[in-house]
């Protein structure tokens, strides 16, 4: 009995050590210099011009056809001046977005995000590229413009859910974006609580990343 207990203790200790090692590994993010990546352009992407009322109509139509709308977006990080920078798509010099988009019916979060990254910034699934954990979720309770980082308990049928995933980049990667968009590296210190410029979701990314440690890779 005592020998069995010692074996179980050893197994439990080893399992705990393994879990701890995984947690440490998952909490450390390697960031490669911006200069190690290639940026190009391709044909312009057609963008819908719509006012808020048009968007509400479109959301209602989508909800009637497919139910809850789920969007997935990527937080892509690079190193510049020894500080983490987020890659953001800029449209019309004033609108900032994370690369991503709506899932197809029955599509998983990860597969949908990989598809959207391929179509939006031409990222392909290469060695070292990894869609990591979901670091934040926002909900649209009704057909409104505002989304919240929580689902109110009285809301049984939300209209939209947006999920942010931390995506780990390899040492080398090509980014090719439509000509009517720019892909900018924006420092976390500039994004932090800057809702006026970046909106209520992007401006919260520095807080969402506060649990991670960044390893600035030198090449």
TrEMBL record:
Keywords: mRNA processing, Nucleus, RNA-binding
Molecular function GO labels: mRNA binding
Subcellular location(s) per record: Nucleus
Transit peptide as UniProt keyword: no
Pfam families reported for this sequence: NUDIX_2 (PF13869)
GO cellular component, one term: mRNA cleavage factor complex
GO BP annotations, alphabetical order: mRNA 3'-end processing
Gene3D superfamilies attached to this UniProt entry: Nucleoside Triphosphate Pyrophosphohydrolase
Family: Belongs to the Nudix hydrolase family. CPSF5 subfamily.
Record function comment: Component of the cleavage factor Im (CFIm) complex that plays a key role in pre-mRNA 3'-processing. Involved in association with CPSF6 or CPSF7 in pre-MRNA 3'-end poly(A) site cleavage and poly(A) addition. NUDT21/CPSF5 binds to cleavage and polyadenylation RNA substrates. The homodimer mediates simultaneous sequence-specific recognition of two 5'-UGUA-3' elements within the pre-mRNA. Binds to, but does not hydrolyze mono- and di-adenosine nucleotides. May have a role in mRNA export.
PANTHER family: PRE-MRNA CLEAVAGE FACTOR IM, 25KD SUBUNIT (PTHR13047)
Subunit structure: Homodimer. Component of the cleavage factor Im (CFIm) complex.
Protein name listed in UniProt: Pre-mRNA cleavage factor Im 25 kDa subunit
């Amino acid at each position: 009995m005592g020998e069995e207990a010692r074996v179980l203790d050893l197994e439990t200790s080893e399992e705990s050590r393994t879990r701890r090692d995984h947690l440490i590994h998952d909490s450390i993010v390697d960031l490669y210099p911006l200069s190690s990546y290639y940026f190009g352009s391709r044909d312009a992407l057609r963008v819908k011009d719509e006012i808020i009322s048009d968007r509400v109509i479109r959301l209602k139509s989508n909800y009637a056809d497919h139910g809850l709308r789920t969007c997935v977006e990527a937080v892509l990080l690079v190193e510049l001046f020894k500080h983490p920078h987020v890659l953001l798509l800029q449209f019309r010099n004033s609108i900032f977005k994370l690369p991503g988009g709506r899932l197809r019916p029955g599509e998983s979060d990860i597969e949908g995000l990989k598809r959207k990254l391929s179509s939006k910034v031409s990222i392909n699934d290469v060695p070292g590229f990894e869609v990591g954990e979901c670091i934040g979720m926002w909900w649209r309770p009704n057909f409104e413009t505002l989304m919240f980082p929580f689902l109110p308990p009285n809301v049984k049928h939300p209209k939209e859910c947006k999920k942010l995933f931390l995506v780990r980049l390899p040492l080398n990667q090509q980014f090719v974006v439509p000509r009517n968009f720019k892909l900018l590296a924006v420092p976390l210190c500039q994004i932090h609580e800057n809702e006026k410029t970046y909106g209520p979701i992007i401006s919260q990314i520095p807080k969402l990343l506060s649990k991670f440690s960044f390893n600035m890779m030198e090449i």
